[in-house]
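Long-time lurker, first post. I've been practising inverse folding by hand and with some scripts of my own, and I keep getting stuck on stretches where the structure tokens seem ambiguous. Below is the full token string for one chain I'm working on. Before anyone asks, I'm not after the true native sequence, just a reasonable design that respects the backbone. If someone could post their per-position residues I'd love to compare against what I wrote down in my notebook.
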């Protein structure tokens, strides 16, 4: 009694199609697919911007460390 057979799911699917219609369901699925594509696109843009930020931070720390190296050699001599 606790599990659903394939016939239960087919009846539920038939009721959903009758309530919403085929066109409405395909529109909803298209909207969901477009939302997923936009989400993936934005996630990849965020990852690339984070990589760019890390590169700029690394280059800035290298510049600072190079300044300290030059200042140390100038103070010694």
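-- Answer (accepted) --
I ran through it position by position. Result:
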């Amino acid at each position: 009694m606790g599990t659903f057979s394939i016939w239960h799911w087919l009846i539920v699917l038939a009721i959903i199609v009758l309530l919403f219609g085929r066109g409405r369901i395909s529109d909803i699925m298209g909207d969901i697919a477009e939302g997923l594509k936009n989400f993936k696109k934005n996630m990849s843009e965020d990852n690339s911007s984070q990589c760019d930020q890390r590169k700029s931070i690394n280059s800035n720390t290298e510049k600072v460390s190079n300044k300290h190296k030059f200042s140390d050699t100038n103070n010694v001599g």
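A couple of notes from the structure itself: Residues 14 and 28 are 17 Å apart (CA to CA). The longest helix spans residues 6-76. Happy to go over any region you disagree with.
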